[in-house]
Each structure stands twice: as C-alpha cells, then as structure tokens.
What we know:
The chain has 451 residues and is of the alpha/beta class. It contains 14 helices and 17 strands.
Amino acid sequence: MSADETLDRAYADHVAALRTAYAKALAAHGFDAVVIHSGSARKRTDFDDQYWPVRPVPHFQHWAALQEPDALLVVRAAGVPTLYRVTHVDFWEHPYAPEREHFFAHFDVRGVASVDAVKGSLPAGRVAFVGDDLARAAQLGLDAVNPAGLVRDLDALRVTKSRYEVLCLIEANRRAARGHDAVLAAFAAGEGVELALHLAYLGATSQDDPETPYKNIVALGSNAATLHHVSYGRRPTEPTRAGAAESLLLDAGATFLGYCSDITRTWVRGRGEAAGVFRGLVDAMERSQRALCDAVRVGDGYEALHDRSHDQLGALLAEAGVVRCSGAEAVAKGITRRFYPHGLGHSLGLQCHDVGCALTKPRGDNPFLRNTSRIAVGQVFTIEPGLYFIDALLRPLREGPDAGLVDWSLVDALTPFGGIRIEDDLFVAGDAPGAVENLTRPVLPVGGGQV
Ligand SMILES: [Mn+2]
C-alpha cells in the first residue's frame, strides 16, 4: 500500500470513529446535532482593515483539514455529516487550497452563497454551536454556544490519537526536521543573525510564518534564557562579531493537515573554557532527556516524571559543580526550580498545547506544568527538560540564605550561553514498556551538542 493509501484508509477509520463518538456525546448532552464553525478572519487591530490568516478551530480540524473561513460542518446523531463551504466571490483574496482532499468524500459537501443560507437547512431539534466566532452562532439562530459538557466530551476525544492523527504527527515531525537540519547547517557555517536563522527555517520547511504551529523560538546566546524568545535579532550577535563561542536554542515545529510538531535542539559552536562546560551540560541534558523518554510508563502520573526530571537536573548540576550540594538537596531547597522553571511537557496534536492532559492542577511547586494526566495508551506529548541561566530567577537565590550552595562564578561564565532545552514528541503506542514511540528521533537523531 502506498503512503497515500495508508493515510486515506487511516482517515476513513478516524472519521468513522469520530462519527460514533460524536453520536454518543450528542446523546449524552441531549443534542440532535452540532454545527462546527471553522472560524473567521480576525482583525489585526480595530483601527485598520488588515486581517490575520484564519486558524481553524481544532474541533473543525479534527474532522477536516480545511483552512477556510466560514466553513460549517453539521454532525447529526446519524448519517453522513454535511460540510457547507461558502463560495466566496472575492476578487481581493481567497483561502488556501487544502493540501490533501481525502476528507471531502466523507462528507455531503455543499456550496452556499453565505452563512445565512445555511440557516434554513439546519437539522430539526436541539442544535449546538461549536466555534470561536459567536456572531456566526447568532446569525444561525443557535443559542447553545459551546455547551460546556459537550465541549468537554469532544475535547476528550482529542486526548488519545487515532492512527491517522499519528501519521499526521509523524509527517509534521519529518517536515520540522528539515528546518532543524537547515538551521543547524547555517549555524555551523557561522550564521549569527537570529532573523536569518528563522527565515532559513521557514524556507526549509516551506512554511509561511503564520502557518507554523507556534512562533519559532530562535535564540542565540543569552537570548536562550528568554523561554519564548521570538523578537529575533537582526544583526550578528556580539560573540559572532568577536569570533567567540556561541550557543543556539531552536524550538520550532511544522504542521501537516493541522497537526503540530514541537521540537527543540540546543547547539554550541566555538571553543573556550566556558563553552566546554556548557557543551558538557548540553551532553548531560541530552542523556537526561533520553532517560526521561525511556522512563515513560502507562499508568504513571506525568507529574512524577516531571519530578524525576528535577532529580536528574539536581544530579547534573552537582556533577558539573554548578551547585555545591547534593542533587537531592538542590531539589529539596527549590534550587533546581530556579534553573528550570517550566514543565516537562504538554499534550500535542491539533494544538501545540493540546487539550485534555491538564484537567487537574499541578502541585504548587510545579506551577507551569501543562500535563498532569495519568499516562495512557494513545496519548501524544512532549518531553522537554530545560536548564537556563535566567538572572531574574537566580537573583533571589544569589541574595538569599542558600547563596553559598551555588558556584556563582561558574553561573556567570555560563550566562552568556543562555540555556538548554531538548524536546521530542512521544506517542504512547501500547502499554508494554517498549511501546512508546519517539516521533522525533527517527528524523532528528541528535538532541544537540557541539557543531
Ligand atoms: Mn513544547
């Protein structure tokens, strides 16, 4: 079977399962049908006439890989769903053509002149509206807008991924890998302008900036200490100009049929004492990240894995001499949380931070953890431990009673390198220990290191 046939068949199973699951959810909440609106273009500001490209609502994309405003999918308790597409007569612009057309055959597709034209064709009975343009719900005369119970059940369907969705996530990883390879090559060749690296990534992945799953994080040197560094430098950095050692943190993904990849790599070029220590830390973080990926077990809490990432970071900081206490003490005193403030990872799918894995709050000392679920077959999530030299977070430690537990001259020497994050996307394919598939490493084998 060709890859295209495999994807088509997997989609047929995906949509059949969705129809069954939607019928159940509709019945559970007393609805006869649901209208899912793809979305509307949003204005960049109220004071001009420019719009952002539409990013379809995920419930819509769960069915149809169609990046088109004002498409309406009507799903009833039984029968083939109806897909209404507004046939725009617009000589200013028109929407993206879908990358693949495999989904059309699974819907009763109808062209309409406007959203208003759908109103008379809505199913009888109680009809819910799911979407983010509430004006459209009003236009259609629907007042059950994003009903909480129904939306919760529909979101739950996105937590475990179908074979089709995993194939899309694999392709999204493959595309992102091309970008990471291109940026690494440019960095290795001496490129020291963040904007140039960002544009190289877009070019290699054939993505326009608004199409990426999230804004690329392209950080040279100390900018890596800004966790979401997206204000790219437009001139060569100081170390590049001086021919000194430099680090690069690239956190960037790609989309395929609406599904996202989310990958981070950290590199260092050049030599010198501090660069050597930093490289050693990158290598240690790489080993730690791989060990965490290997430790994923069905039935365990993800938060326990996050705690384990702090234990490993504590050991690693002690080993490198960054802390002058045991790793366990560094964790117990909250020191590792000053070097690694974010969570170990998050659910991934149609949204970069996908739904369903953060239904309960994390413990108070893990405020930014976005996955508190029990690890289950079918989940896709990231594993992305980090280590950073963030002045604002380290200052209270430096000025507090535990200051003596840190080698500050070493911290100061490492601060120009910003930080380290290594991130892969994992699919829990089965409940045996070896049944967790890393979707990233087959296409991007190394997490970082010296170039
Ligand atoms: Mn991530």
